[in-house]
Amino acid sequence: MRLDICAPVLFFLVTGCPAAKHEGVRVGVEASLREVGFVPFLAAAYGQATGEELEARFLDGPALAEAVERGELDEVLLVSDETVEQLEKEGFLRRREALAHEELVLIGPRRDHLGKYAESSGAELLRNVARTNHRFLEGRPGSVEATRLTRLFRATGDRARPGSWFSSPHEGRTLVRAAVASPHAFALVRRSSVLLESREGVIPERIWGEGDPALVLVIHAAEVAPAKAGRNLEFHAWLVEEGRKALATWGEASVGHALFAEGAPATGEGARFPSIGGTPAP
Questions:
Q1: pTM for the whole structure
Q2: What is the CB neighbour count within 10 angstroms for residue 220?
Q3: What are the pLDDT digits (tens) for 67-84?
Q4: Contact, 118 vs 208, CB < 8 A?
């Protein structure tokens, strides 16, 4: 059963001996991290280590920012630059540390519709795709895919999205699936979503735009100010250490190698991954 994306999700671990009852730690998690499945793992590990509950709320960036403003969260796990920038601008974040990163990639038809523009990047690549008049599926409004697409499109300087671009209710793996099922469609999707779908036999014809600095997604752990009697300072340190450990190998059991790379890439550099792109047909 699919849980509502904005509903609280409680994870408990029952230990062999009773533990003192403490108020749980409230963690806001950007919704795009739901499908990779490491948050329940962290919650169980935290329960085992402390006997405390971890309450994780999966929220889109705008809703997560509102929950922070209302004082409903102690810590946040963020993957959208736009959400990070908003919370920092409003002074809601204390320490923020990069745990890992992945990237957005453009998937589309195998045939080379971009010609000499295939090696372009960022807003330029998006502008060139827009000029192909091929169907382009946009991610669900509020999703990480849609938020980054909006930023990139704004940078193109074009006034209106092409008529061949269509909004959709999809994000993550479902966006990959919808794009692959639509003949000659392009879509901006998360690399981890492509890899997770590949184990189900859903494989895009071609991957475009890998290693693009404009498409990096960094997973951040950040304390929410003000600290709750010093407790979320301790939790933040635990989360950074255990989160980095978990993400360093996360995905190896399911897709054969990690879904994420360590920390954040250097400024101006793309994600550090082996290529997942295919060779175009002649």
A1: 0.84
A2: 23
A3: 999 999 999 999 988 899
A4: yes
